[in-house]
Amino acid sequence: MKERVRTPQTCPKCGQAYTERPAYSRVDGSPICPDCGTREALESIGVSVEEQDKILGIIHEQYKPE
Ligand SMILES: [Zn+2]
């Protein structure tokens, strides 16, 4: 059974409200939105911002919110 957390949280990195399970910043361990979590992970392996945008675009196409 999937648990749906509806309480929106605000990401301290990008200021976006999100309701998904948070990711945790590699920098200070604070909860951040899944997008920023993905960006940090990609950045840590040397992926450029342009490539990060492309990858996030693909992720968003696959998980379209209703
Ligand atoms: Zn964010």
Give structural attributes.
binds zinc ion, 4 strands, two-stranded antiparallel sheet, alpha+beta, 66 residues, 38% helix, globular
Describe the structure.
- The protein is α+β, with helices and mostly antiparallel strands and 66 residues long.
- It has one domain (9-62).
- The chain has two helices and four strands.
- Strand 1 (9-10) and strand 2 (17-18) form a beta hairpin.
- It binds zinc ion.
Low-confidence stretches: none
Strand neighbour order, sheet with most strands: 1-2
How many distinct folded domains? Answer: 1
Strand content: 5-15%
Backbone structural class: alpha+beta
Q: Which ligands accompany this protein? A: zinc ion
Evaluate the radius of gyration.
Answer: 12 Å
Choose one word for the global shape. globular
The averaged pLDDT comes out at 89
* Run of helices and strands: EEEEHH
Report the count of strand segments. 4
Distance from first to last alpha carbon:
19 Å
Number of helices: 2
Helix content: 25-40%
Describe the main β-sheet briefly.
Answer: 2 strands, antiparallel
Produce a short descriptive summary.
The chain has 66 residues and is an alpha+beta fold. It has helices at 34-44, 49-62, and strands at residues 9-10, 17-18, 23-24, 31-32.
